Amino acid sequence: MRLGIRVIGICVLCSVSAAVCTLSAVERTILIGPKTIGKAWKDNIVLEPRHFAHAHAGDIITVYNDNAKRTAQGAFQNPKTWQGIAPEYGYFGINGPFRMTLTEDILAIAREHGIAIGGHDYRILQVTLSEASDYHETTVWSGPSVMMKDDWSNNAEIPASCLKDLHVGDGLRLHISKVKPNAAAKLMDFTWNALDPSLDGVPVGGEAYTWYIYDNAPLLKLALAGTGGNVAMRIGGTGYRLDGIGIVQQVGEVSEDYSEAQRAPKEYVLQPGELFHGEKHFPADWSGNLKVTAAPFQECTGNDVLIISYRLAPAAKAAGTTPQLSLRNTRTWGELTGAPEPVWYPLDGTDIVYLFDSVALDEVKTRGLIVTGVGFTLTKIELISAQ
Amino acid sequence: MKHLFSRQSILLFVLLCSVCSCHAVEPVPTTEPVTYTLCNAQATAETQRLWAVLCSEYGKRALSGVVAKVDWNTREAENVYKWTGRYPALNVFDFINIHASRDVNKQGWLDYSDLTPVTDWYDAGGIVGCMWHWQVPANNGTNYTCSPGTEPGQTSFDPAAVSDPNSADYKRMIHDIDQVAGYLKKMQKRGIPVIWRPLHEAAGNATEFAGGKAWFWWGAKGAEVYKQLWRFMYDRLVNYHKLNNLIWVWNSQMNDPDWYPGADVVDVVGRDNYYALQYPLAKEYRQLQQEYPDKLITLAECGNGDEVDMSPWAKIWAEGSRWSWFMTWYDYNYNVGNSDEHRFAGEQWWKDAFSTGLVIDREQISKLLYK
Hints:
The complex is a heterodimer of chains A (about 375) and B (about 375). Chain A is built from five helices and 27 strands. Chain A is mainly beta and about 375 residues long. Helices cover about 35% and strands about 15% of the residues of chain B. In chain B, the strands form two sheets. In chain B, strands 2-3-4-7-8-9-10-11 form an eight-stranded parallel β-barrel, surrounded by five helices. Chains A and B meet through strand 25 of A and strand 1, helix 1 and helix 7 of B. Strand 25 of chain A pairs antiparallel with strand 1 of chain B, so a sheet runs across the interface.
């Protein structure tokens, strides 16, 4: 009898667990890194459109990262225009993982072109997509609303009692309205200092901005204000109205199924003479290009040669695209040699060896060059020096 | 030109080239004996002495310089001292916040009328420079800005008002120039010559590509209006306020001779460059030297850019550049502790620069001036 009850009990537990697992949302990995986002906004990676085929407005992208410099910035961009996918995502400070909530407008772009993740000075480890129901929000402050004026002079004073249940791992969601272009928030402690440099003028837009807390430092600053009705936090900024605040907690599961995940191209450390080493795709829609600055060409002479290595893209050939490559100047994207028409090099799998004429040499030493083309994956560019 | 070869043949070709030909190093151009003269014949003795030193060192060594962060200080020079044990020769102050100076604004947060940062620097042997991000009221009526345009945060301030004495913008110009004149006059009374670089980068990228335009309001109405404004300022400061302690630096944006105010109102031609690699820098130096052979040529602003890091000074010099001085920019994030790396010119760059023997520091310029 006892055994029977135990068996039945286990079965009930299993079925309840299964029901919970089925009903609760799952955070699933859509990109596996690492992908280094280096200096000067030159690096990015595009999340493929397929990840968003069944996504919904309200779903959340999370970018887990490391190696972020204190001045690192992130961005979610439209791969078609390379502008911020929404104004508030054009650039923002990075302090731990960063997130974006999908809207219908963002989803429309994502399903057609994907979403580019860019910025500078950090490394992407993993990107996940989770559903809105993965997160539970508790409203802790509901006004009265505060209008943030153009001169940053207004702020909302948030009592310590509202923040007593805020913990590491939670998010503090600012519900906003009447948002103007270039709206920005400043989240401060009770001494008027920003809780973190990344919160000193963070761009905001849409209907909400969520600040996720990844370490104890800001919570300690909030705790210094004391308890109860003491002002623990000041929320200021410009160009928006603050209507309410909620604490957001993640309640969903994390999937360990990586079978559908996109993998970032393998990263290499450049060796002497290498100007590029990695995998840069040049798809059939002509969206692929690579800029090489003038820095590695500074001591280049007319005796030096450029060797460009690549792999042909089978899909491009199947689609009837003729793989070809061209080298351009960075000012007008005209032919590197100054010729009126661009020179196209048909690609058959053999490395391209480029000898500089005097015009091209002056151009690369002054401004660098652009590689453009279709139907291949660039794997390496080497400058072989006669010196 | 493109050819296809095997890797082996290419390597052979490269090897042969390296055997048969040497790297064609361009000879360092010698500076022709040119007499450089100050455009203000009434220049003070101290100004003439500084000018004489600048001219005597031109082509031999460059003066080192930094810009001060925007609140009337020498913190960037202190950074250089911390890194190298040597101060730069030149500290450039910016009048960007004159509207918030306590002598004209009781709510202000800095005081340009208190010359202490300037006199301390000068008394320690340093050269004083001043520039002016001339901010005027933005369209939103709240902020101040240099950026032209119709957006709330930009300004519709009209530089063409320089020829309309009845306009509000003209009166504002007079007001602001006179305020700055007050500070410069205090320096003159104290015997301090000033390397003066107003109305900089006027052409923006208007001459760089089709559709380019000025990014400061003083260039927004084109070259002719800009030149009028420059001469207006020159006249107001030199002839009206009797400021004879200024060495006038005009900034070229390259290929913009139409914007040059004229040899009679310019002492030095400067270039700002944040793609500061040795090869393009040398090309620009040579071009400016050819276009303005009777003027000193200077690297008025420089540093690492978004795309490239500035070349070491030894390489810049070896490529043939002979800038009279250089001025590196400050880094807000570094100064407030938000960044471990200086964005524009950090410890290693400065150590390397001083190690070349081609760069003059504060102690050296002091000896040259007062020997």
